[in-house]
Request: fold
Amino acid sequence: MKIFISATLRSFFNREHEIDVKGKTVGELLENIIKEYPDSKNAFYDETGERRGFIKLFVDGEDRTGRDYAVYSLSEKSKVLLLPVIAGGAPSLAQTEALVSDERRKEVELDNTEIERFNKHLLLREIGVKGQKRIKAAKVVVVGAGALGSAVIQYLAAAGVGTIKVIDSSAVALEDLQSQVLHSLRDVKRPKSASARDSIRNINRSIEVIAENEDISADNASELIEDFDLVVDCSDNFKTRYTLNDACILNGIPVVFGAIYQFEGQVSILGHNGGPCLRCVYPSPPPAGLVPSCAEGGTISPLAGIVGSIQANEALKLIMGIGEHLSGKLLTVDTLYLNSSVLNVKRSCNCPLCGDTPTITEVETYDYEDFCGLKAKEDEVPVEGFTPEELAKKIDAGEPLKIIDVREPHERAILRFPGAVVIPIGQLVRRQKELDPNIDTVFLCKQGKRSILAINTLREAGYTGPMYNLKGGLDAMKDIVLANEGGWL
Ligand SMILES: [Zn+2]
Reply:
């Protein structure tokens, strides 16, 4: 049967987006997949043989990752989908309860300019004056003013959301302008939160905007979202997503989750009316470095607009209590092959946060590596590394060195490291014979994180030669490499 492989996992499957593997049950299918694609074992199981929590297996739109998943039987016609979490209630045909109550709606008025401005909303039977007043009374937090945030913030502002808080601690970079349409050339190097505030004011001066140039952490998360109706998660890293999820669930604030990677997107509503939270759907994020982040993996420009617009649409429906929404569902969109599915996801009674016996009762501080069980154990030797300058010196001095580039082929097309041996991370264990344990081996990737995972993976596989990480990856060494390209060949 055909199995669809999400882009984040394709490096384990010879870059194929669809594979053909047989199996009468899910257990048999997984066995056969690993037989045909040995590299995929590392994606499914950790070093102790435990199944990893960040991959879901859906059969005909239903999650089959539960306890008895292995014996679930399959037919030739079953539609199977492997879906990881990306760095992102019961459906009811009847009117769902609006996030903004009637009392709050009655407190706001629309003036003549607003009646003109929102004319096209007022014409819709489902929205009308009542709906528009709810939108005006709504208070929404948008976490992340990057690619997804650009679409979300602009549409929420245009739709007339009365109070918008934007949280982002980064500054606009030139490369952001490819997909972050909220910012323009003159905003480069400015804080994204300030640039977002200006854009919102350009759309509608009467919106109350709060710009927070901060990172979400266990210390400030609850305070930052306090008194808001809804949070839209447009962040780009797992640490923020899980901290935000925990804070929102503990404070009873629903989250519109959105995530993008390359050509794919996911949208869901978490923590709403007894629906699942992020930890119910994906108990843990992938180990740091196992799948590249958005910054490392790239995305096509309009993807964030598509996914962010769906998030904004879901946010408005929740505020007004109209239509069906994505609580208890996960929408996946693949814009390269034009596939989309709505998958059912359920609250897990074993969820450490919103399950029957929760173990997380306050927003906890954790670092991502620790959270993923990848933090160096007591007896584990930390990974040593060279700075770009140190590595350049060693190459110039002609020291015996082997340099291994663990990036994916399309990333190397942007910038090659002269003389490096190319071994994508999924093939390392199988190809460790190509390494020479008698000389220093330096591992490099884009940002210096996947290369640490590469070193730890080889250590676990029993390789004992001296291994070093290029600190900061090729991003940090770009200028030196370009200056020496001819000389190092
Ligand atoms: Zn949960």
